[in-house]
Amino acid sequence: MSVKSFKFVSPGVFINEIDNSFIPKSADVIGPVVVGRATRGLAMQPVTVESYSDFVEMFGDTVPGFGGGDIYRDGNYQSPMYGTYAAKAFLDANVAPLTYVRLLGQETTNGNSNGASTPAAAAGWRTEQASNNAPSANGGAYGLWLFTSGGNTDKILHTGSLAAIWYLNSATNIFLSGTVYGGSISDTQGGQDMATTGANNVVIGTDSDSLFTLVISGAGGSEKVRFGFDDTSVNWIRNKFNTNPQLVSGATFYTAESAKSYWLGETFEQELRDRGFTSGSLGCMMAISNATTTGPWKMHPQASREGRTGWFIGQDLGSAAAFKINEKQKLFRLVGRGHGEWLHKNCKVSISNVRRSTTTVTDYGTFSLLIRSIHDTDNSVQVIERFDNLNLDPTSPNYVARVIGDKYTSWDENGRQLKTYGEYDNQSKFVYVEMNNDVDAGATDATLLPFGYFGPPRFRAVYDLNSTGACNTEPMGAATGYNDVSRGNQGVLGTDFFVTGGAGIPNSGSIVTNMVAGLNCQYLSAGVGINNTGYHGVCTGSLVFPSVRLRVSASDGGLSDVTDAYYGMQTTRTTTTTTGDKSIADFHRLLYSGYTAGGGQNATNRFATTGVDDYSYVFSLDDIVLKTGGGTDYLYISGSRRGQMNGNLGSASYTELLNASIDKFTAPFWGGFDGFNIKKPDPLYNKGMASTSTEDNDHSYHTWKRAMDTVADPEFLNMNLLATPGLTLDGLTTHAVRVCEERADALALIDLPNVYVPAHESYYSNKANRLASTPTNAANSLRDRIIDSSYGATFYPWVQTRDDATGAMLWIPPSVAMMGVLASSEAASDIWFAPAGFNRGGLSEGAAGIPVVGVTQRLTSKERDTLYEANINPIASFPSTGIVVFGQKTLQERQSALDRINVRRLVIYLKKQISILSTQILFEQNVQATWNRFIALVEPFLANVKIGYGITDYKLILDETTTTADLIDQNVLYAKIMIKPARAIEYIAIDFVIMSTGASFDD
């Protein structure tokens, strides 16, 4: 302190106390960012977890690959998800939190149109096509409709329900084989015996074992498969057909012998079981494709999309006679926060404890919202998240949007950053609330409560197929009171989604716009047939896409207390069982792209795709009635509120229902999409990209780059490491280094290309071919890239680990093991110690955090020298001491202290921590007292680092020589910190001098 601060009046000794022993508040611990795939969790945004148990809760466990099974329905687990292993390796040491960016398929605005210059520019997938806009004769989606009939003399097929969808990638024919419905008269048509073989539009019955026979033929041969719809039988359809879309890629990933020209997609067991279609049905194969629109054959272009519920709607506050369910007030809906397909496959939402207001203070009632497992039942509810005592009062602390949260993120392509929208912080890990604008403004009736919901969209039904080729409409809803609201003109088969034709698959050049003579059966008396032969007549009927069952009775499933029943969507196998149905998610998949959020919240149609209805049904508790004849069982009867069914069976008022504890219902999530190409084991694999890939011409490249750019701003997210395990494309790994370099506070761990080629990158019959590079090639390739940055590091070769959950052995890139080494090194010593050698880099001794049991290549001493000279850190395997990290160079080519990882990590640590400490004096007066405060904050910190052997010496200068008067006038405090980093021992030189017997050691 300056003597000018003392007030001298009379002689004496003046003493002032200066305490420089304050211990500054420790800054938050900073950890790494890992970018990769995971089985679930928020995607394309950084999520920080404190422990591996937190990671598993959010993102799922490690995935070793080769998952097999029903890939289309259960998910793609065919390739290892290396990011999950990196997270496990690092978090095992418990030294810092980890931030994970889960990948889902993305695309730029230049790559998301049907006119994209290359299919790779758009995310998603599609079957094989002749051009970008039209399906070829070898691609499309084809559905099997099942019917019942009154007998061979009855040409009315009633309502046909879609039972299954096949996706043909390169097949040339798909048809049912068997006796054509209506007779056995033989007539040759196009080389096929129509008495025994059916093509599109031909109705075929099952055989004596209640099984269908389907023929699929393609370039690779023909399959003739007998199957049925009883999922307890070995002949169940999903047991008999290929359900792995990756097999259509030929020998790219698997053997040529395993290649298929198709895969089986959705099957709808619940509806088939309910309608008695599991045996003895009639079937007809028809195409569900159109060259001029986007249908289930072409989930392209489509980036990842969030699952959501339909709008929850309020109760009827008017007279029953005027009740129009599709006009009920929309209140709110739930939208996924970044989970893609996982949400609708695993979760459902229930509204319960609906209570009207019983006070004079407010008219707003309350309700609970539960996110449940889709596999649970009302007999055994499994709650994932629960929010109670919610209301629709925008001024209340219990307002549903305030409690659950309404914030969501969106990527700003121009600003290259995530932007957050909404008012209230998210309390749910899975969803945010989207409020109706009028409800949010307090402009709706305060007595409204969530009483039902709009069901998910589905393809438009086609009614009254007939011999004229016309497709008549059958509107339902406003005029009759049913839940299927009036759709107006249903359109004609062929102009919406359906394409029909003769034998085999109709090609894109001969699409018919109307049904050609309806569905073909054999009838001598028909008079007119598709070929005007006089033999083949017409079966009339309707085609309807399936929707999930709604609970009808409160006592379904044997509930002892009917007030425990959740009406609405029912996810059990049958109405009487308590076993979940695995087909439920198939009802709610995104079968088409073209969804648009435009049109406003009250728009009739929110879909740009022709032939899609906004919703398949509308449910409301208003349609619950007390079972006729008394008792306590309540029934859901569609349309009962208007009294249009069973005489005059109208439901009670909503207050009576609530008084009877009829206050619960369940709704689905629907429409989630991961944006991935399901025909690839790893949809973001390196060989699927090229050296010429850019964000605009390759959606995989864009996905990786966007994830890295998400964490590029140091003011948005703190990190000290960036890892993209398994990514080896030069352009993207270099970008990872540049991101860290521009931030100047993180080290990028990158993997080199072709060191090891895993099975999800390419099929090799000879395992030796998976070692596509040598140390010399790797060294030369890296030199040619001229990265020259101390903010990056790389290692060689890959290592082998064991998956803890399954026991499976797999090869992992070295960046995964190094995540564990860096964490364990920091835990054992400090961040500035070299993460190498037997003390801190012994992989066999557990330094990687996960077990490491082998290397893809055992390096010789000469090979290690070759790698190290090129700034590639070797991972060596020694017979007596095991596997060890044997280098710690950065990618900096010029020699300096920063060409070592431990020094770079030290300087990153010092810069970040001193930067955080400096914020404590920001906007203070630029005077000596403030300078002293800065010195008091930084000096102890530097001294502690010196004591811990991070630096050997330092000097801090902050006085008039650094912060000059000119700088003060510019509002600048300028300090100099000079450090001498401690160097790690990498070479030990010892002279052994052999002396004669008579020599003296003292000489």
Main beta sheet strand tally, sense and closure: 8 strands, mixed
Helical content, roughly? 10-25%
Structural class, by secondary structure, is alpha+beta
Oligomer: single chain
CATH topology of the largest domain: Rossmann fold
Number of strands: 44
Total domain units = 3
CATH class of the largest domain reads Alpha Beta
Biggest sheet strand order reads 2-3-1-35-36-37-41-42
Structure, explained:
The protein is α+β, with helices and mostly antiparallel strands. It folds into three domains: 32-109 and 676-891, 3-Layer(aba) Sandwich (Rossmann fold); 121-302 and 460-544, no CATH class; 312-458 and 549-668, no CATH class. 16% of the residues lie in helices and 21% in strands. The chain has 19 helices and 44 strands. It has an eight-stranded mixed beta sheet with strand order 2-3-1-35-36-37-41-42, with helices on both faces. Strands 5, 6, 10, 13, 14, 26, 27 and 28 form an eight-stranded mixed beta sheet that branches. A five-stranded antiparallel beta sheet has the order 23-17-16-24-31. Strand 36, helix 13 and strand 37 (792-796) form a beta-alpha-beta unit. Helix 3 (82-91) packs parallel to helix 14 and helix 11 (699-710) runs parallel beside helix 12. The model is unreliable at 112-117, 130-136, 184-199, 467-518, 523-536, 595-607 and 644-649 (pLDDT under 50).
Task: Please describe the topology of this protein.
Blueprint: E1 32-36, E2 47-49, H1 52-59, H2 71-74, H3 82-91, E3 98-102, E4 125-126, E5 140-147, E6 156-168, E7 171-176, E8 188-189, E9 192-193, E10 203-205, E11 212-218, E12 221-227, H4 237-240, E13 262-267, H5 269-274, E14 282-287, E15 298-299, E16 312-314, E17 330-336, H6 342-346, E18 347-355, E19 366-373, E20 383-390, H7 400-404, E21 408-412, E22 417-421, E23 431-435, H8 437-440, E24 450-454, E25 458-459, E26 462-465, E27 519-522, E28 536-544, E29 567-568, H9 584-587, E30 612-613, E31 618-620, E32 624-626, E33 634-636, H10 654-659, E34 665-668, H11 699-710, E35 721-723, H12 730-743, E36 747-750, H13 775-785, E37 792-796, E38 799-802, E39 809-812, H14 814-828, H15 837-840, E40 852-855, H16 861-869, E41 873-878, E42 882-885, H17 901-918, H18 928-947, E43 951-957, H19 965-969, E44 976-981
Parallel strand pairs: 1-3, 1-35, 6-28, 29-34, 35-36, 36-37, 37-41
Antiparallel strand pairs: 2-3, 4-15, 5-6, 5-14, 6-13, 7-11, 8-9, 10-14, 11-12, 16-17, 16-24, 17-23, 18-19, 18-34, 19-20, 21-22, 24-31, 25-30, 26-28, 27-28, 32-33, 38-39, 38-40, 41-42, 43-44
Helix pairs in contact: 3-14, 11-12, 13-16, 17-18
